[in-house]
Amino acid sequence: MDKPTVSVVILGQKYKINCPKDHEAALLEAADYLNDQMNEIKHSSKAASIEKIAVLAALNITHDMLSNRKYAQANEQQLRSLTSQLDDALAHQADSNNE
Fold first, then answer.
1. Is 30 exposed, middle or buried (0-12, 13-18, 19+ CB in 10 A)?
2. CA 78 to CA 66: how far, in whole Å?
3. What domains lie within the chain, and their CATH numbers?
4. First vs last Cα of the chain: how many Å apart?
5. pLDDT 10s digits, 66-86
6. Which SS3 state, helix, strand or coil, does residue 92 take?
7. For residue 20, what are the contacts with CB-CB under 8 A and spacing of at least 6?
8. DSSP string, 24-85
9. Bridge partners (DSSP) listed for residue 7
């Protein structure tokens, strides 16, 4: 069972990546995002080596991902609290209607 090979370009370098079938578009999107982040760092800092640019991009992307995860978790907790309050209010209303 062969995995398709997808060609991506990051900082002018071409890479061939094995990719599960039906995930090619997601891989290309990720590669484009990484390329954009690395180009932004390359043009806005004095980082000369590709390795340093890659590490800085990885740190930025990881920071964004972790921040988004914390934000999503906080929203999930708030949604659970609101759902619980709504359930309590509906139960109270149902009890009042049965009296």
1. middle
2. 18
3. 5-98 (3.30.160.880)
4. 66
5. 999 888 888 888 888 888 888
6. helix
7. 3
8. HHHHHHHHHHHHHHHHHHHHHS---SHHHHHHHHHHHHHHHHHHHHHHHHHHHHHHHHHHHH
9. 16
Q: Which two tokens stand for residue 11?
A: 């900082």
Extract the tokens encoding 73: 């978790």
Tens digits of residue pLDDT in 2-28: 678 999 999 999 999 999 999 999 999
Q: Which two tokens stand for residue 28?
A: 């290309």
Specify whether the CB–CB gap between 6 and 28 falls below 8 A.
Answer: yes
